[in-house]
Amino acid sequence: MRAVRLSGWGGGPALTEVGRPVPRGPEVLIRVEAAGLCHSDLHVADASPGELPYRLPFTLGHEVAGQVAALGPEADGPAVGERAVLYGPWGCGSCAHCAVGSDNYCDRRGDLDWHGVGLGRDGGMAPYVLVPSARHLVPIGDLPADQAAPLSDAGLTSYHAVAGLRHLLHEGTTAVVIGVGGLGHLAVQILRATTPSRVLTVDIREDALALGHRSGAHAGYLMRAKTARTLKAETGGAGADAVLDFVGNSATLELATDVLRPGGELALVGSGGGQLTVRKPGFLPPGFRLSLPFWGTRPELAEVIALARSGALHVETETYPLSAATEAFGRLRRGEVRGRAVLVPD
Ligand code: NAD
Ligand code: ZN
Ligand code: ZN
Question: Is 112 exposed, middle or buried (0-12, 13-18, 19+ CB in 10 A)?
């Protein structure tokens, strides 16, 4: 089978012939129906040698939905033919966090040479993917695969980030979403569906702001020198209660800390490499809180899928055959994808 593999750091992913895996022990073989393309795939492909603990080569694809194709002799749970989405952050499987489905915060993460499916372990940009255990599968029923796949990261990560801010986001509050791409447009929808907060968006692209508007944002602003002032004025001068930064470069971190009101919280999700200086006395708002959410938990993934099945979430997708992966990666790199690009095995 042909898979989108990374075989050298900085060299970019390439379609490569590999054997179809055979499930052993508790493993489950999934026939892939769709795999989402995340901006993190670019960060991984562009990483310098030694920056990530992953061993090469491996197949990319950490947002995966499909059908159970075969079970190892000790696999329990799903039946052949059942449709599921993969819970992607695979931890050690035995620490206290993994035991409750919080593999995203596995206590042994530092000892593992992977972060999950398609991140150091063979992922779903292939016709088939091997899952180490049925506990990583969440049933999707008849949810279309191009919707289900992005929900497992773009949806789940946004949901987890919003969950961490929910205590602040009551009636009359404002949340700002910076970067309305694959994650950001779902964060807007999740904020609207699960909090009474007003939602403002910021992006460098007009079409991303339009997507934010269609996703339920109350207003959107292009990233400009005076954007912080505009956003503050929009909140009546006090500032925002929460900021979700899906870019994470120096400019967006500066904007985030400028617009937060005292006691506000910044959830930094984007891996843009920006730095924030913490100092007292300093320029951060008093009571400022920062969180660094990573992906989400397995129970939260089930909640995201339920929310989508209820009609509250809609992923804006661009679909490409797996054989056109290089073209899809190029569009993502040039900032041309609206919503999420999804690969479908041809
Ligand atoms: P994306 O490319 O789909 O979207 C990024 C959006 O940000 C685009 O709309 C782009 O126009 C906008 N943008 C870029 N520069 C900007 C700037 N300076 N100001 C305002 N907007 C700007 O990316 P994505 O797949 O949604 O991922 C977003 C980020 O989140 C990436 O850095 C990715 O690596 C990271 N990520 C983190 C986690 C986690 O668990 N923490 C999970 C998934 C992705
Ligand atoms: Zn991702
Ligand atoms: Zn663990």
Answer: middle
